[in-house]
Amino acid sequence: MAISLTSAEITALCQALKLPAVGRDAVHLAEEARRQGMAHLDYLGELLKTECHERETRRAARRIKEAGFPLVKTLEGFDFRRASHLPEVLLRELATGHYIDQAEPILFLGEPGTGKTHLATALGVAAATQGRSVRFVTVARLVTDLTEARDAHQLGRVMGRYHRVEVLVLDELGYVPLGRTDAELLFQVLSERQERRPVIVTTNLPFGEWTSVFSDARLCRAVVDRLTHRAHIIETGIQSIRLEETLARSRRGGNGKNQRVEKHPA
Predict the structure, then answer these.
(1) Which of 129, 176, 208, 229 has the fewest CB atoms in 10 Å of its CB?
(2) d(CA 77, CA 152)
(3) From CA 244, how far away is CA 250, in angstroms rounded?
(4) Model confidence at 3, in pLDDT bands (50, 70, 90)?
(5) Which residues lie closer than 8 Å to 36 by C-beta, 6 or more apart?
(6) CB neighbour list of residue 156: distance below 8 Å, 6 or more residues apart
(7) pLDDT tens digits, one per residue of 31-86
């Protein structure tokens, strides 16, 4: 005997089974299946694909939120025409995530405004979308977290959190000089992750100037050694993309203002 369920009953059952996408789309897809003469199993397959896709989308959104990105950026939102010197093919290949399993560091070196943080964030977002755990933090914030954890006798727990995350994005290395203790704490994080889990680092300093951040020359060499081993080093240049965009908007705004003055003289 055939059993006919109402839309409300189907929705209630799906809520109980935690299948929100199935409950939302079951009736709509059933009507579409009838129009197309779709077999029952094909209809069921489409429903389950919808649920799986929605779960993947929610999971990715949760991981992106947990990563702590100040702004969500993607490679699709980066204008490579303004930065033709950047290795777009390599960056898109890195976005597939192969560097994660190989534990290969990625370093972005360049002046402020050249796209370092955007590109590092974009790789982190891509990793989170693929189901990887990601943490975005400035170097200054990282050492503050570690110092506070040490003072609270929680250093092991906090270190473990930074060690376990699959992709660690360290932004703004070089903007703030580090004391010896801070530098040693950062070194511990980098040492623990070496050849186990990758880091993505942005810095405005060439390697020769890292002694301005790490005052101990021996520790500085050790940090550079950890970060550059098997690393992808990408130089973003010296010309600020942000400044160019600001100047371009200013010129367009200025032209528009001049035109309005000509039409409506005082």
Answers:
(1) 208
(2) 41
(3) 10
(4) low
(5) none
(6) none
(7) 888 888 888 878 778 888 888 888 888 899 999 999 999 999 999 999 999 899 99
pTM above 0.85, yes or no: no
- Selection from 236, 203, 205, 207 nearest residue 220 by Cα: 207
The per-residue DSSP string of 161-194 comes to: HHHHSSEEEEEEETSS-B-HHHHHHHHHHHHHHT
Q: pLDDT tens, 123-155?
A: 999 999 999 999 999 999 999 999 999 999 999
Longest dimension (CA), the chain: 85
How many other C-beta atoms lie within 10 A of the C-beta of residue 115? 24
Cα dihedral sign, 88-232-59-73: negative
What are the φ/ψ torsions at residue 102 (nearest 5 degrees)?
Answer: -85, -5
205-232 per-residue burial string, b: 16 or more CB within 10 A, e: under 16: bebeebbebbeeeebbebbbebbeeebb
Q: How many whole angstroms separate alpha carbon 260 and alpha carbon 252?
A: 13
Assess contact for 112 and 161: CB atoms under 8 A. no
Looking only at the bridges linking them, the beta strands covering 199-203 and 134-138 are unpaired
* Amino acid sitting at position 201: V
CB-side exposure of 36: number of CA atoms within 13 Å? 12
Closest CA to 191 of 222, 235, 160: 222
Please identify which residue in the block is written with the tokens 């990887």: 132
- The tokens describing 56, both together, are 């993947």
Residue with tokens 């092991």: 156
Residue 99 tokens, joined: 């560097």
